[in-house]
């Protein structure tokens, strides 16, 4: 699974989501362990706890967390929170 496919799953699974997915470390070609990092911005996160926001992302990944994805680092934001506190704010 590549980063574009993970982004597509997240954006298709969460209303109005914008996802940026990277591989946070250099993959070992012999032992690729599918570690990903995602920044996800969506108004669907409004009023949800951080745990519930992350659960929405896991749900959007449709079971790939147990097959194709070994680990997922996540940052989730509402659009307003992203403007104030996002990675480049």
From TrEMBL:
InterPro entries: BolA, BolA-like_sf, BolA/IbaG_stress_morph_reg. It comes from the Archaea. Gene3D superfamilies: BolA-like. Belongs to the BolA/IbaG family. PANTHER family: BOLA TRANSCRIPTION REGULATOR, BOLA-LIKE PROTEIN 1. This is Transcriptional regulator, BolA protein family. It comes from Haloplanus vescus. The lineage of its organism: Archaea, Methanobacteriati, Methanobacteriota, Stenosarchaea group, Halobacteria.
């Amino acid at each position: 699974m590549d980063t574009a496919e993970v982004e597509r799953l997240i954006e298709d699974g969460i209303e109005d989501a914008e996802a940026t997915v990277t591989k946070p470390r250099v993959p070992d070609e012999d032992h690729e362990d599918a570690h990903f990092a995602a920044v996800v911005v969506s108004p669907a996160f409004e009023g949800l706890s951080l745990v519930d926001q992350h659960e929405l992302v896991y749900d959007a990944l449709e079971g790939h967390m147990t097959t194709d994805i070994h680990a997922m680092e996540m940052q989730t934001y509402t659009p307003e929170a992203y403007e104030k506190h996002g990675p480049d704010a």
